[in-house]
């Protein structure tokens, strides 16, 4: 027991303090109201969002499962077919198997899935498009946002982020957003019609060798949505020294993160805390060549490792079962450049409802 800090009253059998019980009761009142407001306005208030995160922590994910069950009944997936795309030529059985693996392990790696030509083009995009310099631990929060061209020999920060609007204007990114294999996997895993909602690309550099929490280099779980998966695409080779992505296998499952850690709330965790709980065999460091894709349920504990050699460039897509949750500023598809996206916007417009789209999606041009 830590010295000097009064113990909170506890419910001995449940290992829950009185403060936690009160917070849970308040969250149980706030969340249904917030869900109704979201259904009517599309907005999630900050109190509702806090209640949502806390109820994930208290229920070990059961609340998310219950809400996901409702969503899958309201907006059932239309899938059931084969799909060819960046993950390969997948039969319906392949897709079911991959979704099952995602359910049990929380991640699946597809080595060298994206073509070298697409990696080259996306790398070129990253080298010619200004990126936001991300604030590092200990830096003032009120500094104006700085956008610079990334220079690998003279990195000024640990992390550089690209604007979603710029990414949405790139043909390769558009093709990935419209990729049939990713969309089918999303339908299968989320058990509903998915929404493509968070899109980002960033560099991690060796600007300093300490883990930086602003750059997501401490273990954490995400709780932006009710259910989702992320698609991390390595656009540079990632070896042990290039900050491989780490994931704790199975920690995305119900009670996959123990109450001891969940009761801390939405915080960053040290390697020691995570190692003590899971042991090194479950803490995976996913080094892989460029073009490799990690599909991952980031409800499980994950992080980027500090870079000790060349910088790492990652593109990340996300597919979710709802837009309820964290706020992301509106982003816009200024021009539809990818024929696949043009088709998908016509056939599955709801998948892209997070993004402002051109008023009219022109029909496919005949050659
Ligand atoms: O960079 C990584 O590998 C992890 C990134 C991450 O966890 C995040 O951006 O939330």
Structure, explained:
This protein is an alpha+beta fold and 367 residues long. Helices cover 33% and strands 18% of the residues. The strands form 5 sheets. An 8-stranded antiparallel β-sheet has the order 5-13-10-15-9-8-6-7. The protein has a 3-stranded antiparallel β-sheet with strand order 12-11-14. α1 (18-41) crosses α2 (46-59) and α4 crosses α8. The structure holds 2-oxoglutaric acid (AKG). The site of 2-oxoglutaric acid (AKG) has 7 residues, from β14.
Question: What topology emerges from the helices and strands here?
Answer:
Elements: E1 10-11, E2 16-17, H1 18-41, H2 46-59, H3 62-74, E3 83-85, E4 88-90, H4 92-105, E5 107-110, H5 116-128, E6 131-133, E7 147-148, E8 159-161, H6 164-168, H7 171-177, H8 180-190, E9 195-204, E10 228-234, E11 245-248, H9 259-262, H10 271-278, E12 283-286, E13 293-296, E14 302-304, E15 312-320, E16 331-332, H11 339-347, E17 355-356
Parallel strand pairs: 16-17
Antiparallel strand pairs: 1-2, 3-4, 5-13, 6-7, 6-8, 8-9, 9-15, 10-13, 10-15, 11-12, 11-14
Helix pairs in contact: 1-2, 4-8
Bound molecules: 2-oxoglutaric acid.
List keywords for this structure.
three-stranded antiparallel beta sheet; 17 strands; 33% helix; disordered N terminus; binds 2-oxoglutaric acid
